[in-house]
Design brief:
With 84 residues, the protein is of the alpha+beta class. The chain is 40% helix and 24% strand.
């Protein structure tokens, strides 16, 4: 995990939840962790990491994920064993 990924994980786990996290950065970080990312229908993205699977929606028209998506991502990372 490089420095940028560590900073992003800290931002995901920060309280209060940030609304300024770019979804593209999240996808790049997950790929670096070895996640399998596949396209779903519409804006859906299927992600599998360490045996844990989840489906997220890419944000649009904004680039930043909303706070609810970040909370879901935090729960997903916790289940996959990724901690700050």
């Amino acid at each position: 995990m490089n420095r940028k990924h560590r900073a992003l994980v800290k931002a995901i786990y920060a309280h209060p939840v940030s609304g300024a996290i770019a979804w593209r950065d999240v996808e790049i970080m997950l790929q670096a962790f070895g996640a399998e990312i596949s396209e779903g229908q519409g804006s859906r993205v299927r992600i599998a990491l360490n045996g844990v699977r989840a489906v997220f929606h890419r944000p649009h028209p904004r680039k930043e994920a909303d706070k609810g998506a970040i909370k879901s991502l935090r729960r997903f990372l916790t289940e996959a064993g990724i901690r700050p």
